[in-house]
Amino acid sequence: MKIAVLGTGVVGQALAGRLAELGHEVTVGTRDVEGTMAKTSPDGMGNPPYPQWAAGQPKVRLATFAEAAADAEVLVNATSGSATLPAVRAASAADLTGKILIDIANPLDFSAGFPPSLFVKDTDSLGEQLQAEFPGLRVVKTLNTLTAELMVRPRAVADGNHTVFMAGNDAGAKKTVAGLLESFGHTDVIDLGDITGARGTEMLLPLWLRLMGTLNTPMFNIKVVR
Amino acid sequence: MKIAVLGTGVVGQALAGRLAELGHEVTVGTRDVEGTMAKTSPDGMGNPPYPQWAAGQPKVRLATFAEAAADAEVLVNATSGSATLPAVRAASAADLTGKILIDIANPLDFSAGFPPSLFVKDTDSLGEQLQAEFPGLRVVKTLNTLTAELMVRPRAVADGNHTVFMAGNDAGAKKTVAGLLESFGHTDVIDLGDITGARGTEMLLPLWLRLMGTLNTPMFNIKVVR
């Protein structure tokens, strides 16, 4: 498939790299192509800057959000939660009607430091905000409950014996997304129903962050045992 | 141990019954002993009224919140989230200094129907509110992430191969609580650190409730796979 990955950080890199490896035609979208290609320092977590990563990914193109979205059947929102709505607004300079948007962001607010709080929660979610503002998009919330490396290579922990969630209003879009998740190696994809299911998965983040501190690693996931 | 279980509903019954079965001296606390013993109809979920349950539990006493708390080394808050602070205030007519309070309630607000929202979240929690108002109590948040039957008989699903969380400021209290959890059959107790760890476990409830609807049963739990 033709896939646009919005976001050039470590999450976007993980998704773009894995999708390209699986044979998809991947374009990474960014606000400012020149600015992204001028980056020379690691991000705040010590991850390599985009050009260094991209040097090893000759098949992955870089373009503006709108250029990347124009050609794609599927968009992946891999921007940070606070950058999500502006990024998709920029992408919507292209016609997004009927396209699938896989939203893997979390509404984290770091304005008061660590741990972050959530800027939307409980009776609304980032997934719902996207679906409400872009009714022509078919938004599927997924993958926001695990670290980037495990999103795309779930077998790195317990041979993939854990769970990933999915929520969205469009059954066809969820079928496509479930296929992508299975191609990554996910074996237990739970469909939580319509996009309001995003609330629960986004509200898992405070527990996830606490567990990361307790276990001293982001390489874990939850399994729904039933 | 001498244990006071605050709350006469299905959660209080599950805890009191299991603790009595394990040989503890259990008193159930209620706001109004006469009113509780006059109940003849099932609760909103079809669970039997307290007197019917109590008829099969000759060793379990019923008393006011304060009478139950006065004699106990350990208190279990098994009231609903909205009834929690009033119940512990009533119990605090007794001297609670140094006692352990196991808080298993969730701050669910049903005022707008189902699913409930959370009346405290994100930057605070019910567990923290209890610890702040009753600094002499040693509050341990636990068991609020699974259904009552599984709290006390975890082996009913996957032979207990799933996780329960614990958060609190007092290491000695957590050691006592971990021992009780293990006596119930829990095999994976994760200590999330101080009482602020309650935030993440309480915020799991929207996902838990959604999963209950999706799986059509409350008999499931999450396992932290690492």
TrEMBL record, chains A, B:
SUPFAM superfamilies: NAD(P)-binding Rossmann-fold domains. InterPro entries: NAD(P)-bd_dom_sf, P5C_Rdtase_cat_N, STEAP_metalloreductase. Transmembrane segments: none annotated. The keyword Cell membrane does not apply. It comes from the Bacteria. Residues 2-107 form the Pyrroline-5-carboxylate reductase catalytic N-terminal domain. Keywords: Oxidoreductase. Pfam families: F420_oxidored. This is NADPH-dependent F420 reductase. It comes from Plantactinospora siamensis.
